[in-house]
Automatic annotation (TrEMBL):
InterPro entries: Clp_protease_adapter_ClpF, Hemimethylated_DNA-bd_dom, Hemimethylated_DNA-bd_sf. Gene3D superfamilies: Hemimethylated DNA-binding domain. Residues 108-210 form the Hemimethylated DNA-binding domain. One of its GO terms (molecular function) is DNA binding. This is FBX21 protein. The lineage of its organism: Eukaryota, Metazoa, Chordata, Craniata, Vertebrata. Transmembrane segments: none annotated. SMART domains: YccV-like. Keywords: Signal.
Amino acid sequence: MPHINAAAALQICVLLSALPAQYFLSRWYGTDSVQRIQVTERLIITSWSSFKKSCLSLDAWADRLKLWLSKTRNWYDGEKTTKSGDNDAETHFHFAESTHVRSPKPEYIQFSVGQVIVHKRFGYSGVIVGWDVKANTPEGWLQHTYPPPKQDLRDTPHYRILINKANVFGKSTAYIPEEEITVIMGLEVVHHPDMKTYFSGYDGSKYIMQPWLKKIYPHD
């Protein structure tokens, strides 16, 4: 069987369509040859005009490009937002950094965001910037921090602390159980590069939360 390429197939299709086209023209536009020629010319002119507007017009291609860019940008923004949201949830889920609203506040949570604290064992001071009703960290961290004799601490309230830079403690933040901290009242003592991110000032008893933080801890 001879091989038929695309060009040959197109020629065959054009030839085969000639007879139905002629029948269509003669059936709907009369049998007079002059009429058929006129109708054919009109069809060709109309088709060519439509083809020029849709395929040979710079404006048409510019519109297509704008539409494609718009769809691409919308897809990219949506994808980026989704990935960003996933990354935020993944990054800020542990160590009292989750942004879910802590409401209502359980009665057994003794301390509040903005209060200045001192670590009972290590002696450093700091300010509370978040809390969890129980330790919310990777399992490996819990196993390393709380050996079997201290396993019960995993289920107690935990607080995220910005450590006072003046203590030269070696760490800038800490995540510690409630039983290891005590509150200092009426003394503005914390110096930390992230203070302004979390707080707008000091009211004499504790630091004042920024609006975004107050939304997360509305009862503190």
